[in-house]
Amino acid sequence: MKDMALDHVLSIKDLTVFRGAAKILDRVTLALGQGETLALVGESGAGKSTIATAIMRLLENARVTGSATLAGEGDLFTLSERKMVKLRGRRLSMIFQDAGTALNPSYTVGRQLGTTLQRIHGLSKAEAWKQAIELFTSVGINDPEGRMTAFPHQLSGGMQQRVMVAIALAGSPDLLLADEPTSALDVTIQAQIVRLILQLTRERGASCVFVLHDLALASQACDRIVVLYAGQVVESGPARDVLERHRHPYTRQLKSCVLEIGAKDLVAPEGTVPSHDQMPIGCRFCTRCPRAVARCADQAPPLVPARQTATGPLDHHIACWNPE
Ligand SMILES: Nc1ncnc2c1ncn2[C@@H]1O[C@H](COP(=O)(O)OP(=O)(O)OP(=O)(O)O)[C@@H](O)[C@H]1O
Ligand code: SF4
Ligand SMILES: [Mg+2]
User: Fold this and answer.
1) What are the CA-CA distances from residue 238 to residues 32, 264, 311 (Å)?
2) Which residues line ligand 2 (CB under 6 A)?
3) Can you give the CATH number for the domain in which 57 is found?
4) DSSP structural state of residue 300
5) Which residue, judged by its Cα, is nearest atom 3 of ligand 1?
6) In terms of C-beta density within 10 A (0-12 exposed, 13-18 middle, 19 or more buried), how is residue 283 classed?
7) Which domain holds residue 30?
8) Is Transport included in the keywords of this UniProt record (predicted)?
9) Residue 228 lies in a domain
10) Which one of 296, 298, 317, 324 would you pick to mutate in the ligand 2 pocket, going by the greatest count of ligand atoms within 8 A of its CB?
């Protein structure tokens, strides 16, 4: 992949995360342009949340290598913690998968949003209160004034997620990392929250890395898709190419699961992801792949352009020795 750090808001190169001896992420490379939305797709445990948390530099008990370049700031992994504190909430912001644990149970949601607004914009308490109500309105919280004095446990899971969205948007970040709400919320509410986040980021011209389980939504709503398997990128590119002209056997399996079952949610393909202490040294998908050839078990395939055209390689990449 050419070095795109200069013309991208975010460029991640060879991001590798170890937890003890386990390689949770392995040489993850991706890039995101101004105003683009990128979907991270893959089964549970693929490493989607780990990527988002690593970008925020909030991973605990993990060793991180590689780089994550944010336009105008340089490599986030080498910045001081003081600088990161300044960037979080202002230039990059994250909406966590589980709002229940991300919100502080001891403070009202109005106070949590208000103090964020005061810290980021230097507003007075009264100004922050007024702006908090406006933000609660924009994320679809009904009776926003009344909700300001509610504690998180007094709100439904969907409302808690909306509060999280408001807090994440308080500093008008130009990069939003949104981890899809878990199944703790029912599917309709999840879809509403996902659509709300996409709409608000688009309106603000921000870029968004979105963890999504819904492949159909990823293709409709996102510009780019990155398919992850066991901590590795197996296919990435413009959403339409990945969905309609995919070449990796795992992408096909993900897609056919959705189509066969007619479900919107991602249903895992047959078999299970190997545990980290039994990860194949070659292609991590080889234990489940119908197209495996001899070299797959002991040689890891590199991420390479999926197609060549008369004008050169396309911005669509796969890691596979025997692609479709
Ligand atoms: N705090 C932790 N300590 C040890 N291992 C962890 C920790 N957090 C995650 N992992 C491991 O890292 C891998 C990736 O986890 P991650 O949470 O990033 O997956 P995910 O793709 O977000 O999954 P899901 O769709 O279930 O949210 C998994 O194997 C998981 O068991
Ligand atoms: S490298 Fe081999 S095992 Fe891995 S996806 Fe491609 S064909 Fe299947
Ligand atoms: Mg996750």
Assistant:
1) 11, 20, 17
2) 249, 283, 285-286, 289, 291-293, 296, 301, 320-322
3) 3.40.50.300
4) P
5) 19
6) buried
7) 5-82+215-318
8) yes
9) yes
10) 296
